[in-house]
């Protein structure tokens, strides 16, 4: 029983079963196709529906899925942008676990070398299918330090710029009460002007009366003979003695006619 138990444990640690020739052929096809595909080809693949894509993968005969195949082409294009044009790669190193198989190799590109990692995972039926492809550029120590220094500089510079902006904003906060007070005074004056304008009565236009014509001055003539004649005439008509009737004043009518 101990021997059988040890045999079972050793079998479980061996990892998934796979055909090396089949996996290597599928991986070589994947790398060759990704390195030759241009933007138009990738756009055509992306324009396919999920059903059409799965049909194409099934017809290829390789253990690919639609999502993993499209993701591998996108990852390859990103690696080309980082490392330059693809030239070739070395032998594969296989690393199998209980649920996945990893193939790694070093590839040569125009600008720099890169590490290729292709991972196959088992599905619910225990069959291996392509999961992902990764292209990682290999940088020298000086390039790594330069990139780290640049990232540090950018990070610290961003922090200091933000702190300066915050300090400037805080320094301007003291002017906010003054601005509020100025705006409140302005609004108060405007409201008071509106209230006074609404309360003020509208000017009433009154007709200016026309000036009455001045009366002509009376011409009073103190003529003794005329007075005596008039007094005598009145006394004769009234049968009153002339001594009993006294003429105080004589006024001339405007028509100059004696009534």
What's the total number of strands?
Answer: 5
Structural class: alpha+beta
Low-confidence stretches: 1-12
Q: What is the overall pLDDT average?
A: 80
Percentage of residues in strands = 5-15%
Largest sheet: 5 strands, antiparallel
Return Rg in Å: 61 Å
H and E order: HHHHHEEEEEHHH
What would you note in describing this structure?
There is one protein chain. The chain is of the alpha+beta class and 259 residues long. Among the domains are: 12-142, Roll (Nuclear Transport Factor 2, Chain: A), CATH 3.10.450; 220-259, no CATH class. The protein is 53% helix and 14% strand. The protein has helices at 2-13, 20-36, 39-46, 50-60, 66-83, 141-172, 175-199, 224-238; strands at residues 86-89, 93-96, 100-109, 114-122, 128-137. Helix 2 crosses helix 5 (66-83). The radius of gyration is 61 Å and the shape is rod-shaped. The model is unreliable at 1-12 (pLDDT under 50). InterPro entries: Na_pump_deCOase (IPR005899).
Quick recap:
With 259 residues, the protein is of the alpha+beta class.
Quick tags:
259 residues; alpha+beta; Nuclear Transport Factor 2, Chain: A; five-stranded antiparallel beta sheet; 5 strands; 53% helix; rod-shaped; disordered N terminus
Topology summary:
Blueprint: H1 2-13, H2 20-36, H3 39-46, H4 50-60, H5 66-83, E1 86-89, E2 93-96, E3 100-109, E4 114-122, E5 128-137, H6 141-172, H7 175-199, H8 224-238
């Amino acid at each position: 029983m101990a021997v059988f138990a040890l045999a079972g444990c050793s079998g479980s640690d061996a990892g998934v079963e796979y055909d090396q020739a089949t996996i290597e052929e599928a991986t070589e096809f994947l790398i060759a196709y990704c390195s030759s595909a241009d933007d138009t080809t990738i756009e055509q693949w992306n324009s396919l529906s999920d059903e059409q894509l799965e049909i194409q993968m099934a017809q290829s005969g390789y253990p690919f899925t639609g999502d993993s195949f499209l993701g591998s082409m996108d990852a390859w294009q990103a690696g080309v942008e980082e490392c330059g044009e693809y030239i070739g790669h070395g032998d594969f190193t296989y690393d199998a676990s209980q649920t996945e198989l990893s193939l790694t190799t070093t590839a040569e590109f125009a600008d720099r070398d890169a590490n290729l990692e292709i991972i196959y995972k088992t599905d619910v039926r225990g069959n291996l299918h392509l999961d992902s492809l990764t292209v990682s550029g290999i940088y020298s120590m000086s390039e790594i330090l330069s990139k780290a220094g640049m990232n540090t500089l950018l990070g610290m510079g961003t922090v200091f710029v933000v702190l300066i902006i915050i300090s400037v904003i805080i320094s301007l906060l003291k002017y906010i009460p003054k601005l509020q007070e100025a705006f409140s005074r302005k609004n108060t004056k405007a409201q008071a002007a509106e209230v006074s304008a609404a309360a003020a009565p509208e000017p009433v236009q009154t007709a200016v009366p026309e000036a009455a014509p001045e009366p002509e001055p009376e011409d009073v003539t103190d003529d003794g003979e005329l007075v005596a004649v008039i007094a005598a005439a009145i006394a004769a008509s009234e049968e009153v003695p002339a001594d009993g009737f006294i003429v105080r004043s004589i006024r001339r009518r405007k028509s100059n006619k004696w009534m």
